[in-house]
């Protein structure tokens, strides 16, 4: 098992040799910069088509399952 040596010289710049921050130190990146970009808004029609596709896929799965059961 590896020892966590928090007193080595590589921590002088704020990071250890395995690129992890030592205990008690936070990244200098601001929270706003770390947030992922928001997706573009979807219209109602796009949302309706997504639901229709999901329902169609589910019904196709049920039909195929019934067909598989009946062929046995």
Automatic annotation (TrEMBL):
Originating organism: Ceratitis capitata (Mediterranean fruit fly)
Biased composition (Polar residues): 9-20
Region (Disordered): 1-42
Name of the protein: (Mediterranean fruit fly) hypothetical protein
């Amino acid at each position: 098992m590896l020892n966590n040596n928090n007193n080595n010289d590589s921590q002088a710049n704020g990071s250890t040799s395995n690129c992890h921050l030592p205990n008690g130190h936070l990244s200098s990146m601001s929270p706003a910069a770390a947030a992922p970009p928001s997706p573009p808004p979807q219209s109602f029609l796009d949302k309706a088509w997504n639901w229709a596709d999901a329902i169609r896929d589910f019904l196709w799965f049920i039909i195929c399952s019934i067909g598989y059961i009946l062929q046995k």
